[in-house]
Design goal:
Radius of gyration: 42 Å
Distance between the termini: 87 Å
Helix content: 40-55%
Structural class: mainly alpha
Shape: flat
Strand order of the largest sheet: 1-2
Oligomer: single chain
Number of helices: 5
Number of strands: 2
Amino acid sequence: MSTITSAKNKATALTNVQALITGTEKHFPNGQFTLGNTAYTTATLVQTLQSLADAITALDTAHSAVKDGVAALRAMETKVDPVIRAYVTFLRATFSTATAQLGDFGLQALKARQPLPTEKRAAATAKLRATRTARGTTSKKQKLAVKGDVTGVTVTPITTPSPASPPAAPAGPAPVATAPVATPK
């Protein structure tokens, strides 16, 4: 893949190709080039580069059309999907057991719900109870019965000093600090 089209995005690639075209026309108006064992004139080289620029532009246009198409599809799906769901529900209610008629609409009859066998139901119930015990989950009525016991409450008031205004700075120049001078002994 060329370095031009492997740029960060199509806009950069297109700008790079157009800059190559402009520079070639400016500095080599009647040039002769041998690139990769192929001879080019300025006109044929510019034509080759322009075909790449046209391909990038066409790709950009196609991407825009695809984005517009996808947006239109999604907008239409949001309008039509509720109608389809309602119609399928109507068809299933109308032809609930008539598999041939449902097949005409591309639908299959819903399977009757099979109750769990006794052993599996018992195992599921045991697992449910064990999970609730492990998690400590309870029902609404059991939660209402839970009350906290308070043996004694000590209230400690928190007093914060009122914010004092900062001392005013002296109007004159700031005093200069001097270091003590050591006296020789």
